[in-house]
Batch of 2 targets.
Target 1
Amino acid sequence: MSGCVIICPVGFVEEDILDRIAEHIEERCGIGCRVSQKMDKPAYAYDERRCQYNSKLILKHLIKSSPQGNLGFMGVTHVDLFVPILKYVFGLAEMEGQCSIISTHRLQPQFYDQPPDRDLLLARAKKTALHELGHCLGLTHCRNRHCVMYSSTKIEDTDSKQADFCPTCSELFKWQLDKCHRSSKRKS
Amino acid sequence: MTKKPRILVVDDEAAMRESLKDWLMEDGYEVGLAAGGEEAIAMAREKGFEVVLLDLKMPGMNGLETLKKLKEVRPDAEILMMTAYATVDTAVQAMKEGAFDYLVKPFDPDEVELLIQKIVAHRDLVLENILLRKKLEETYQFDEIIGKSDVMQEVFELITRVAPTDSTVLITGESGTGKELIARAIHGNSNRCYMPFIAVSCGALPDSLLESELFGYEKGAFTGAEHTKKGRFEMAHKGTLFLDEIGDISLKTQVDLLRVLQQKEVQRLGGEDVVEVDVRIIAATNRDLSRAIRENRFREDLYYRLNVIAVKIPPLRERKEDIPLLADAFVRKYCLEMNKEDRKIGRSALKLLMDYDWPGNVRELENIIERALVIGQADEISPDDLPFSRKELGPEAFPKSLKMMEKIHIQRILGTTGWNITRAARDLGIDRQTLYNKIERYEIRRGDS
């Protein structure tokens, strides 16, 4: 399975969400993608004071458990994530690493007192997943508001951007991907 | 847009440091981490971070102390304080101490981003401001000489071209136009700038004294020569000798001077040894030397020896567009000297300054601004603070009696020369003693002009 991205549900996550994310990554990045066995709900990362889950601890756990030889290992969860310095995050990635975690908690329209909208949730999840994968490949935030690598600090940012890289980020992504392939070939 | 600033995160909690670092690195920032005040100061000293995110509450050196020290080490670094709700008051205190802003932990993700963008924009603006100001200063200022008029820009260009050479320069211009400043600028921008700049006011010295000043003398050369003294030529060796009021020297001294310029050596009065001198000569005069040559008061050969490069400084009345710039510069200079708040020149006062003819040129303008700052107490210089009123400028304002006219004229000339009696007497065409007599007769006091 070398050169593949693994999508791993952390706690219960509906299959359609995981499948759409996998399809989107395969389609946009040309990388093989598969959904793995689910992991338990990350009770170890729960912060009672904040009633949220520390994304940094989940990421550390993913790094420990990620199978070798893959291009990416992405956790998907419904729990609300935070990092100590910020009130919340939509996702967190290991810059130029393998692992990332995204949360659908704040991607659901209901969180913002909106009626449920499955398509909107899926669109947001796909964008968030591609954004974190970009970070894993070393991409930083893009200044182009429509690029998927544009920093989403609120949900409106996610909604206003496209589910794809801008031409510059796309080139950078391909270049980084190529670099990863070359280095994995050298190792093998 | 400048490059992304380097950010130093200072927090005693590792989790905070790390999560902030991750977040900032996703944005492409170069991030440094410090666990306390001392470490932060050492890192800031070594690496020069442009932005510091500083936790207010830390064991050991707290945030406020660290802020003060950081501002000493890196005054241009922008500091963002991080605090919990309980210490917002202290964060406000920190802003008074020079912090850019503060963030309450934990932050909204867009807060950090917005604040950092704000800092970047602020830094860009400050940088742009500095660059623009520098560019403007470079354009309108050459050392201490100020002028944006085309004629002064030409003078600046000429100085730039002439300065690095060793050519002799003759500066001409009316009294008070700043001939010595031009001479100093040429010296300061030449290869001789680290060697002496010696100025001699030739017109202020009697002939015999000028000779001994220029060439020096040996002990016993004349009555009163109790020890050997080096002349100004020798003192200026490897540097520049500025001969001011060259048009006023006697024909005899002109001959001596010509010989030194040709042979590049001097002989002290009463001495036998010849001393080689390597001196660049800059001469200046407010006289019409061509006329002096026609009247046989100035040697033609000396004139050509001196007039290798001619710099002509226009009188202030021919470059009135420079008046606001010059007046502003003098206001700043004297406010600083007098330890006063910066003051402005009111619109009507500026109109008066622009309308006036400035017989005493820039020196007169400087004296009038200094006087206005001493007299005036308001935030703005008004027409009342100026020695001439609008009325005085018109023909109806002229006094009827010749005596009063003479008094006013003497007052004005004394004002323009900064009460230099020798210079004022020369400008008035009378001797010093006569001028003293008139000052006494008309009861003219310093500050009246």
Target 2
Amino acid sequence: MAYLITKENIKNLLTDLIKLKAVFAPKKDAEDTVLFGKLSSSSEWHGDALLTHTTAKDKVYLQSETFFKIKRNKSGVTIEDGPEPEETVIFGCRPCDARGFDIIGKLFNWSNFVDEYYTKRIAKTTIICISCEKPESTCFCTSFTKGSPVNETGSDVLLTNIKDGKYLAESITDKGRKLIGDNSKYFTEASKADEEAKVTFKAEAEKKIAKKLDLAEVKRKLEPAFESVYWDTVHLPCVKCGACTFVCPTCYCFDITEKAFDNINSVRVRSWDTCMNELFTRMAGGVNPRTDTKKRFRQRFMHKFNYHVDNFKEELCTGCGRCIKACPVSIDIRKVIEEIR
Amino acid sequence: MDKELQEIIKKLLAEKKVDWAIGYEKAYDELSTRPAFVQDANDTARLIFNKYCINNLGLYLTKFKKNKLAVVCKGCDIATVFELIKEKQFSRENVVVIGVACEGVLDKKTGKQLEKCENCRVKQPKGADFTVGTGKDSAAPKNFLDVVEFEKKSSKEKAEFWNRQFEKCIRCYACRNVCPVCYCPDCFANRTMPEYLNKNVDAEENKLFHMIRMQHVFGRCTDCKACDTACPVNIPLTLLTKKLAKDAKELFNYESGADMDVLPPLSTYNEADSESDIL
């Protein structure tokens, strides 16, 4: 079902939501960094930037998630669970960010395994996504089967700016329908013409994305390329920081560590980890199967475009292009996978 | 200029004077460049130099210790090369420094010229083996006005400012990994036994990381701004590195990479040394 909402009413809707839930939306700070921050007023929403510097991933899959705390007190030792998630709205993310939740959601519910921390949080999160009007030179979402500047996968509500200040609002999931139902005073019913305007919007936006990769071909080339000499030189500029993986909407690797304050009081935390880090594969005793920086570099591409496709029939990438922009030495993921030999 | 640069490197590679040449090439759009590694004399056509060549290629010296290298350096990057040679991380004979005249470089994220370029006195590179182009040095010396301004703030204001910055930090370690003088093979942040730094990412832990890193690079940091421009969330690390440069200058009259014969202040001891940092 599609509705219309004006920009003014979006702000009113935000004002109402802020009173009830934790609302995260792009916010700009004094250093011009745009990040998903908790809104205290609707005027803080910065809607001009296409992409935030980091993704909204960390609002559901926290960079550091406390599993439990062990505390000693007078009556003995107690184990206290980490904080319960609160009702959350992620507002103003992009289709590539939203699709990231769909991709890692499958991973965290793989086979019979359910990751309760992720699942609990995503169940309490409503995602309101905004279609991209002006994709940038680093965008390549259209290379993916489901990727598009107006794709709804992963979103609960998708907003598309079809004419000046008027947004087409589509409810995608039950959570989305509930949100629109609860706030129906801000929405009006959309006409057939409005829905058709989205088709034009889509065509216009997709035209701006110049780069389209043949990912089936990439997969075919990657499979036998594990020992290829290609990796010997392509990794050289890479400095092996984790910027690319930490700004990625789909990278999900983590490490579980304990922080001990004394011999009893401690806290167990799950934190994001990155395959670019030497520690990532270092085992107890010091053995490391991936000491070589080349091997770590190769792993990132192999995982995203080869192994993950084997397991989930889709790439571990949404084409947001953040890794390209965040890379201190401007390594282009598109170029690396395209030139594999 | 690019042609001249390519010819020099072509000759060095063809005559087998160096194993690798490290320069710049165009990256994903007109505003971005990336480090280029060239081994073949016929592969030099992709090398360029322009105002978007922001990376400090001195970084790669410590990663190619066994090779003879030719490195394209802006005037400011040469200070890094000298600093590393001084710290015995690389021998002078193994590196051919190709200095390029520079009119200032732009940050790819903001499109603005870097602050360090305003009062740059090495636009015309000094101490290089080959020099390409001519640059006009700034008449005014480097100033520390922004640091002086920041120092005037109260402790509370300073703490608020830095807490806000370190809350943004995602501990991707881009700042550390692009830092030419952060070459420890086993960084304290990666140690697990004992564990100096927990993996838990929060403002406190992040602050600890940055403060320890700053201590470690004092008197060695050439204020090249590599960490500042690499930060994916724009933490103004330049304020910290500039403060280091200011302190080194004021307390020890030392400028990193400037003079090959003077040792870094923390590598030497003199009874007259400042003790202002001892609590």
